[in-house]
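Instructor's aside before we start: the two examples that follow are unrelated to each other. I chose them only because their records fit on one page, so don't look for a connection. First example below.
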Amino acid sequence: QVQLVESGGGLVQAGGSLRLSCAASGRTSSVYAMGWFRQVPGKEREFVASITWSDSRAYLANSMKGRFTISGDNAKNMVYLQMNNLKPEDTAVYYCAAQSRTSREYDSWGQGTQVTVSS
């Protein structure tokens, strides 16, 4: 099992920036990739970005390209989501998740961190 802890959320004005961090511990050798998702109450969870653990190949949802960047530090078991030019519609709880090497499922999740963007 992999334990994940997110941090860095908060309240920011539209146009501002935030950097989310995710600290991984436990069986990190079982991780294929790390991902960021977000969810608004009453809506389905939405994929934001992912990065492969071994070679740092990054993927971003189309709507986030040009504003969000995902990066990782394997040595520190950390993953980051840099969010720039934030918009009110980016308001959500952001979750970090680990994708298993074997199942390729996201089977470990953090508790989430709230991001609120005011207009």
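Example two begins here.
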Amino acid sequence: QVQLVESGGGLVQAGGSLRLSCAASGRLFSTYAMGWFRQAPGKERDVVATINWSGGSTYYIDSVKGRFTISRDNAKNTVYLQMNSLKPEDTAVYYCNVLVGTRALDSWGQGTQVTVSS
């Protein structure tokens, strides 16, 4: 079972930046596709960005394209989400997870809260 620990969230003003990190356990991390997800209050958890096992292929939802960058360091079992030009609508709890096809594993970490003030 993969354990995931997200960190790096916080309170930031609109236009600011944050870098989220997700540390994963296990020797198979470098074989997994990974994704960042977010859940705003009263809404479902949705995908934000994904990255394949090597980092050579990425995907972003339209609302974050050009502002967010997903990356990974397989030597450190860590995936990152660099978030620039943050907007109040980016406020949410952010989670990472392993992707199997297009689906995330059922087990989730505690997430990290991102709050963007206007």
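The chain has a mean pLDDT of 96.
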